[in-house]
Amino acid sequence: MSDISKRPRRILLTGANGQLAADLKPALSAHEVCGVDADELDITNRSAVLELVGTFRPEVILNTAAFTDVDKCESNADIAAEVNGLAPAHLVEAAASVGGRVVQISTDYVFDGTSDRPYQVDDQPNPQSVYGHTKLAGERALRPEDLVVRTSWLCGVQGNNILKTVVNLAERDTPLKFVNDQVGHPTFSDDLSRVLVDLIEADAHGVMHATNAGAVSWFEFIGEILVALGKPRELVTAISTHELDPPRPAHRPAHSVLDNSSLADFGVEAAGDFRDRLPDLMAALRS
Question: I want to staple 220 with a disulfide (CB 3.0 to 4.6 A). Which of 27, 124, 216, 267 is the partner?
Answer without folding.
Answer: 216
